[in-house]
């Protein structure tokens, strides 16, 4: 695209490109023209969605439909459990679990014969009914997409489609119609708070950086999404990279910075590729670079790669990593807004926070602050995963209840099992129990029940998961990721992890539980950065709400969920055993005795609970528990 | 991938790359990424070379290499089996998958088989949580993996 030299010219381009989006607008109806959008997110690409797209294009070509039917990629629809997804516009038909071989049938049956391919439609798990359009799906009914507004709607590799959907209009307005202060005031009025976990008001953060005196300032986009089980930032960068570029440029204008950095995980190759493509296009079109849209304002963006360190999500650690050193945090104050990258005022914001910003300037702060709860405005994207039917990315208004997310959107617990807990906030958060499912979620309410919003990981745990084991999993993560700079985090968490390990191995005592609590509280108040200060949360919250399960491990030496190997007891049912001797042969410590064709028995004193007998028994005569 | 012999051409390639970046500390991490891409790992010789080229003390380079989990100082096998240990995969049984790979290949996580074919590693969330548990073998992704699938996966790369 040629360089766009003024805001007026941008609006002309928008009008020119608008017809590209016609079929994808909300109107549900029939048309001889169709568009097929195939999910091109990492999840669906792992299930061959790229080949599926090629096959669809081939079939369209082969049947001479090229003038009327178009197939292209788009960003994540969020419904990852049932990927790859193909959506047909304008009918709003939503096909799930589509394989490359299904391309032929979709074109023949849906496009040529005008009938839906029934077997590829989503079936509502509770109603056992096929759903014909996307807006009727339970998964989408309660969602409100602001940060993800373009994911599943535009082709992330075409800047024209972003512009057609009013992309860069906010930037144009900010640069030509608003002063720096007006931009910041509007953002403050919107009530937007940081989506990376802390929840600090974004407008205020910008104001601090704006007030700091320096000729050189920086903008950083924190795309070092390290929380295991959260993938919203990746999906935004893959599905709508231009919205992040646009928001970073607005941030630069508002604080007086001319350079921005995107700090991204090297483990996200697709997001990096899409971001690079988008940066190149934005530069050609003149949305970044010198004299943006004919104004005096210049802004440049560079990509910096992370190298696998969770602590780099902490802003001071991230800054040190960009500077080329070890990503170790430093004490605040000074805050980055005063002294950040190379000692200059720096505004660090998360990907999802940025993705909200163009929408706020398009629709106004008063539109945004009407959505959500009293203290938390707008929406939040959650990565719903674990033992739930509809794994995926969901964006919901703040103030929704967990019950609505898990049952209405998530479709309930997998395989009809019983709900046990939901873990939010990743390694810094805590577990929420069934009694708290009706809590309206926002930053404050989650903190009040011992968890936190975090980056938005939401892991559902069922009766088959051991809560001690889950706490141990998170703690192991923080122990491995601790940078080692301060003692409470480096040594304290390690000791805490050892105590938890003892408990899962049946060696824990009631006194250990008391010591753990004391140690956890000490780590919280004495660690240097957010990683250490929140690391004991998964342990403390599970000890508080699942005390009985801890006691079962230390007093009765049993694991109620049947997960902790050392606490299991294998037994052979004399009624079922056919005396085939396979278990006795496979036992590595020869603790199974019995004659051929007679019932066998396990010597519990010698058993090492390896489970080999359990796996080999042909008649399921061995029980564990 | 297996690069036990450090070739001169590889060093030349790295030097050419370093010529394209600013020679200061800020470029260090991106240079190390490229070096690992070229050599497959970052042995002492490569770290010293990078230090000389960028005029950064070797101790500093070692500090950075040992800090980040993405960088490795050991050569890896031809096929790296990465088992996702993100939370979603963990609650859906990734641990049993790790154990089965370890048992079948008779090596521990982080180790490489004697013939240099397979390395077992764990990684943190590839973000394909809908497919949990997920296993990656180099760039190939396997979703909803069960213990029974493992012999098939290994066989595919053993020929």
Structural key phrases:
heterodimer; A: 625 residues; alpha/beta; Glutaredoxin; Rossmann fold; Ubiquitin-like (UB roll); 5 domains; 5-stranded mixed β-sheet; 4-stranded mixed β-sheet; 25 helices; B: 159 residues; alpha+beta; 2 domains; elongated
Nearest-angstrom radius of gyration of chain A? 27 Å
* Helix proportion of chain B: 40-55%
- Overall, the morphology of chain B is elongated
Count of distinct structural domains of chain A: 5
Most extensive chain-chain interface: A-B, 54 and 37 residues
Strand order of the largest sheet of chain A: 12-11-15-13-14
Number of helices of chain A: 25
Mean pLDDT of chain B: 90
How many runs of DSSP E, i.e. beta strands of chain B?
Answer: 4
CATH topology of the largest domain in chain A: Rossmann fold
Low-confidence stretches of chain B: none
Rg of chain B over CA atoms, rounded to whole Å, is 18 Å
Task: Give a brief rundown of this model.
Chain A is α/β, with parallel strands linked by helices and 625 residues long.
Describe the structure.
- The complex is a heterodimer of chains A (625) and B (159).
- By secondary structure, chain A is an alpha/beta fold.
- Chain A folds into five domains: 29-132, Glutaredoxin; 159-368, NADH-ubiquinone oxidoreductase 51kDa subunit (Rossmann fold, 3-Layer(aba) Sandwich); 379-462, Ubiquitin-like (UB roll) (Roll), CATH 3.10.20; 467-554, Up-down Bundle (de novo design (two linked rop proteins)); 568-624, Alpha-Beta Plaits.
- Helices cover 38% and strands 14% of the residues of chain A.
- In chain A, helix 3 packs across helix 4, helix 18 (467-481) runs antiparallel to helix 19 and helix 20 crosses helix 22.
- Chain B has seven helices and four strands; from the N terminus they run H-H-H-H-E-H-H-E-E-E-H.
- Chain B has two domains: 8-67; 79-158, 3-Layer(aba) Sandwich (Glutaredoxin), CATH 3.40.30.10.
- With 159 residues, chain B is α+β, with helices and mostly antiparallel strands.
- In chain B, helix 2 runs antiparallel to helix 3 and helix 3 packs across helix 4 (58-67).
- Classes of the chains: A alpha/beta (625), B alpha+beta (159).
- At the A-B interface, strand 11, strand 15 and helix 18 of A face helix 2, helix 4 and helix 5 of B.
């Amino acid at each position: 695209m040629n360089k766009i030299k003024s805001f007026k010219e941008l609006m002309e381009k928008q009008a020119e490109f608008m017809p590209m989006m016609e079929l994808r607008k909300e109107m549900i109806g029939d048309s001889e023209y169709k568009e097929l959008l195939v999910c091109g997110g990492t999840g669906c690409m792992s299930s061959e969605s790229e080949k599926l797209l090629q096959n669809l294009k081939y079939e369209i070509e082969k049947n001479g439909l090229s003038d009327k039917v178009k197939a292209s990629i788009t960003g994540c629809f969020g419904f990852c459990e049932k990927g790859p997804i193909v959506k047909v516009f304008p009918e709003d038909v939503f096909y799930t679990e589509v394989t490359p071989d299904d391309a032929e049938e979709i074109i023949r049956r849906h496009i040529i014969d005008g009938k839906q391919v029934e077997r590829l439609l989503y079936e509502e798990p509770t109603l056992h009914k096929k759903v014909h359009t996307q807006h009727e799906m339970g998964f989408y009914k309660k969602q409100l997409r602001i940060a993800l507004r373009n994911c599943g709607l535009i082709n992330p590799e075409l800047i024209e489609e972003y512009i057609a959907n009013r992309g860069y209009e906010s930037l144009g307005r900010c640069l030509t119609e608003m002063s720096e202060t007006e931009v910041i005031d509007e953002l403050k009025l919107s009530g937007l708070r940081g989506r990376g976990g802390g929840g600090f008001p974004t407008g205020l953060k910008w104001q601090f950086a704006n007030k700091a005196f320096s000729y050189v300032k920086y903008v950083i986009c924190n795309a070092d999404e390290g929380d295991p089980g959260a993938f919203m930032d990746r999906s935004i960068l893959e599905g709508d990279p231009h919205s992040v570029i646009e928001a970073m440029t607005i941030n630069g204008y508002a604080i007086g910075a001319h350079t921005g950095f995107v700090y991204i995980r090297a483990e996200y190759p697709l997001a990096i590729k899409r971001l690079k493509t988008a940066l190149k296009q934005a530069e050609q079109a003149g949305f970044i670079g010198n004299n943006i849209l004919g104004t005096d304002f210049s802004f440049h963006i560079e990509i910096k790669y992370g190298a696998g360190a969770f602590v780099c999500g902490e802003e001071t650690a991230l800054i040190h990593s960009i500077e080329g050193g070890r990503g170790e945090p430093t004490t605040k104050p000074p805050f980055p807004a005063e002294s950040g990258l190379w000692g200059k005022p720096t505004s660090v914001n998360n990907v999802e926070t940025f993705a909200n910003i163009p929408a706020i300037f398009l629709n106004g702060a008063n539109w945004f602050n009407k959505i959500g709860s009293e203290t938390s405005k707008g929406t939040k994207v959650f990565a719903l995963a674990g033992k739930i039917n509809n794994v995926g990315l969901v964006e919901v208004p703040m103030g929704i209840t967990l019950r609505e997310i898990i049952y209405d959107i998530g479709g309930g617990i997998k395989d009809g099992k019983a709900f046990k807990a939901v873990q939010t906030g990743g390694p810094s958060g805590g577990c929420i129990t069934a009694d708290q499912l009706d809590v309206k979620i926002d930053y404050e309410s989650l903190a009040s029940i011992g968890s936190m919003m975090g980056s938005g990981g939401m892991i559902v745990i069922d009766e088959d998961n051991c809560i001690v084991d889950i706490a141990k999993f998170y703690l192991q993560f923080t122990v491995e990721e601790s940078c080692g700079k301060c003692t409470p985090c480096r040594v304290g968490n390690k000791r805490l992890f050892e105590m938890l390990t003892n408990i899962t191995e049946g060696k824990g005592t009631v006194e250990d539980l008391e010591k753990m609590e004391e140690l956890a509280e000490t780590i919280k108040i004495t660690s240097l950065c957010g990683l250490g200060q929140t690391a004991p949360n998964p342990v403390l919250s599970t000890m508080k709400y699942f005390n009985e399960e801890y006691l079962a491990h230390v007093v009765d030496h049993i694991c109620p969920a049947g997960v902790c190997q050392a606490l299991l007891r294998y037994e052979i049912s004399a009624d079922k055993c056919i005396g085939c001797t396979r278990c006795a042969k496979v036992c590595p410590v020869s603790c199974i005795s019995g004659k051929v064709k007679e019932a066998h028995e396990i010597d519990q004193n010698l058993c090492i609970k390896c489970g080999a007998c359990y796996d080999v028994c042909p008649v399921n005569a061995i029980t564990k528990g | 991938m297996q690069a036990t012999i450090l070739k001169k051409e590889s060093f030349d390639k790295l030097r050419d790359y370093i010529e394209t970046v600013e020679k200061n500390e800020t470029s260090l991490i991106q240079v190390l990424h490229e070096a690992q891409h070229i050599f497959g790992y970052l042995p002492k010789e490569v770290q010293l070379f990078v230090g000389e080229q960028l005029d950064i003390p070797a101790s500093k380079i070692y500090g950075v290499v040992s800090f980040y989990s993405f960088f490795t100082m050991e050569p890896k096998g031809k096929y790296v089996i990465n088992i996702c240990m993100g939370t979603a995969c963990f609650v859906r049984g990734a641990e049993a998958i790790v154990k089965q790979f370890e048992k079948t290949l008779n090596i521990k996580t982080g180790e490489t088989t004697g013939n240099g074919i397979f390395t077992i590693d764990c990684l943190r969330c590839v973000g394909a949580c809908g497919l949990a548990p997920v296993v990656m073998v180099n760039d190939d992704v396997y979703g909803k993996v069960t213990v029974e699938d493992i012999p098939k996966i290994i066989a595919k790369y053993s020929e």
